[in-house]
Amino acid sequence: MQHTITVRNNWTIGEVSDIYHLPVLELIYRAATVHRAFHDPQEVQVCTLLSIKTGGCPEDCAYCSQSARYHTNVKAHKLLSVEEVVEKAKEAKAAGSTRFCMGAAWREVRENRDFERVLEMVKEVSNLGLEVCCTLGMLTHEQALKLKEAGLYAYNHNLDTSEKFYGEIISTRTYEDRLNTLKNVQKANISVCCGGIIGLGETTQDRINMLHTLATLPMHPESVPINALVPIEGTPLENAPRVSVWDMVRMIATARILMPKAMIRLSAGRLEMTVEEQALCFLAGANSIFSGDKLLTTPNPEAEQDTKLFQLLNLKPRKAFKEQTPNFIESL
Ligand code: SAM
Ligand code: DTB
Ligand code: SF4
Questions:
Q1: Among the bound ligands, the one closest to the CA of 158
Q2: Of these residues, 193, 256, 270, 318, which one is catalytic?
Q3: How many structural domains are present in the chain?
Q4: What is the pTM assigned to this prediction?
Q5: Residue 246, domain CATH
Q6: Which residues line ligand 2 at a C-beta cut-off of 6 Å?
Q7: Is 52 in contact with 103 (CB distance < 8 Å)?
Q8: Does 66 map to a domain?
Q9: Cβ(136) – ligand 3 distance below 6 Å
Q10: Fewer CB within 10 Å: N-end or C-end of the chain?
């Protein structure tokens, strides 16, 4: 069957806003239609996160449990050993994950022994047949090439919010820095994973602007995580109100319509969501979750609960490295 939905990166702010503000059921219907034209709606990719170096981060991201500026309950630890990481990756694979994402609380990658160790981790995890992803902070083009050579499949680096609101959340680096890292990753032919968080105190316009920035990048990110803030005691956002599920649904659905080929990942915040709420997110175009009882430092639903969720909704785990090129007219 030929589909005629065009992949575009020339969206205007007005168009993004009109989509975001559609009556919610109409929005879900349209997103579900795009979703079905580009993906098998029964398939959801299961990913696992591991914090390979926790806490003590010099950055001041107002939402983060790992910033050294705030007094949180997170126990800091140095970079894990390659063996420990490979063990966790094997467990993740055995539990059905096809993507393994390693996070380090670094401002940026430095070329030292720790980086050498991360390259070794990437090599070994990639040899297990998993999609290996890293999120290590800012990256130069040369470092991106080294990671690629070691077998890195994807790199996560989020825009988090709009350019305008960004300074309210992080003062230690700029939006421009973020975009530069994304460019370096993309130039090294590494799959880009880039999304954001809602619930930081941003306006609806900030959300629309962030989605607009993502959808008008020279190439859409292959992966777009949408996180709901998990408020962390001790951070400036500890008392931020919980985001409504309708806001998550609108973000997911708009992202799905704007970036039809991307994997849209229902990321942080699932623990607070009911099965029905998560089902709405899948209907709106989300096609990936993080599984395992921990994200990086915060709790996540138990594996057993997610197994039940998949059974109830007749979902099946998506295979690794799946081609994302069904029939459609392509302009990107
Ligand atoms: N240090 C690296 C960096 O900032 O690029 C990587 C780790 S950072 C934890 C990865 C992403 O997780 C952030 O960009 C943010 O979008 C999300 N995140 C972090 N803490 C969160 C929280 N408390 N609630 C929701 N999402 C969060
Ligand atoms: C992303 O956007 N969400 C994941 C992944 N990328 C690295 C991380 C969520 C972290 C939630 C807070 C925590 O567990 O510390
Ligand atoms: Fe550091 Fe990343 Fe947390 Fe920001 S989000 S404080 S850069 S670990």
A1: 1
A2: 193
A3: 1
A4: 0.96
A5: 3.20.20.70
A6: 49, 65, 101, 103, 135, 156, 158, 195, 225, 227, 230, 267-268, 295-298
A7: yes
A8: yes
A9: no
A10: N
Tokens found for residue 16: 């993004």
| Segments forming the whole domain that contains residue 153 | 13-316
Task: Give 299 Cα–ligand 3 centroid separation in angstroms.
Answer: 17
Asked whether the beta carbons of 265 and 290 are under 8 A apart, the reply is yes
Residue 143 lies in a domain: yes
Nearest CA to ligand 1 atom 11: 158
Cβ–Cβ < 8 Å for 240, 231:
yes
In whole angstroms, give the CA distance from residue 157 to residue 178: 7
Whole-angstrom distance, CA of residue 114 vs CA of residue 179: 24
Q: Does residue 26 lie within any of the structural domains? A: yes
Ligand 1 centroid–CA 64 distance in Å is 6
The two tokens of residue 314 are: 């007749």
**Residue 171: inside a domain, yes or no?**
yes
Establish whether residue 59 lines the binding site of ligand 3, counting it when its CB lies within 6 angstroms of any ligand atom: yes
61 lines ligand 3 (CB under 6 A): yes
Q: Is residue 165 in contact with ligand 1, taking CB distance under 6 Å?
A: no
Rounded CA gap, 318 and 11, in Å? Answer: 29
Local confidence pLDDT in tens for the 332 residues of the chain: 445 788 999 999 999 999 999 999 999 999 999 999 999 999 999 999 999 999 999 999 999 999 999 999 999 999 999 999 999 999 999 999 999 999 999 999 999 999 999 999 999 999 999 999 999 999 999 999 999 999 999 999 999 999 999 999 999 999 999 999 999 999 999 999 999 999 999 999 999 999 999 999 999 999 999 999 999 999 999 999 999 999 999 999 999 999 999 999 999 999 999 999 999 999 999 999 999 999 999 999 999 999 999 999 999 999 888 765 433 334 44
Å from CA of 296 to ligand 2 middle: 6
